[in-house]
Amino acid sequence: MEKLVFDYTYCSEPECWEWNIPFEYISKEKFIFDVLENPMILNKIGVSVYEYQLIPKIQSDLDYITNVDEYVFTLDEWFNKNKTII
Q1: How far apart are CA 20 and CA 7, in angstroms?
Q2: Cα separation of 85 and 83, whole Å?
Q3: In the chain, what is the straight-line distance between the N-terminal and C-terminal CA atoms, in Å?
C-alpha cells in the first residue's frame, strides 16, 4: 500500500474549501486509473461525488475527477509541495 494525499482547493465567491485527505491505496497510478473508471471511488476517501451520478451537466464541472492526476500526491510529493523552508 502506498501513502497518498488527495489535495484539492476550490475557491469561488463567496465560498472556498479544500480537501487534504491522507489515505492508502495500492499505488498512485492504480488510484488514478480506478477513479477515471469509477469516480464513485472518491466517496470511499471522503470526497463527495454523489452529484456526479445524479446530475449529468455537473459531470464536466468536477475537475477533481477528470483531472484527478493533478490532485493526488504521494506523501513525499505532497510534503515537498507544501513544506516551508526556514
Answers
A1: 5
A2: 6
A3: 32
Cell 477513479 found at: 35
Distance of CA 49 to the CA centre of its chain: 11
Q: Which residues are bridge partners to 15 per DSSP?
A: 12
Q: Which residue has the cell 466517496?
A: 43
The pLDDT tens digits of the residues spanning 44-62 come to: 998 877 655 544 554 455 6
Task: Give CA–CA dist 46/41, Å, rounded.
Answer: 9
Segment 19-42, tens digit of pLDDT: 899 999 999 999 999 998 888 898
Question: Is the backbone of residue 46 left (phi > 0), alpha (psi -120 to 50) or beta?
Answer: left
**Which position has the higher pLDDT, 13 or 24?**
24
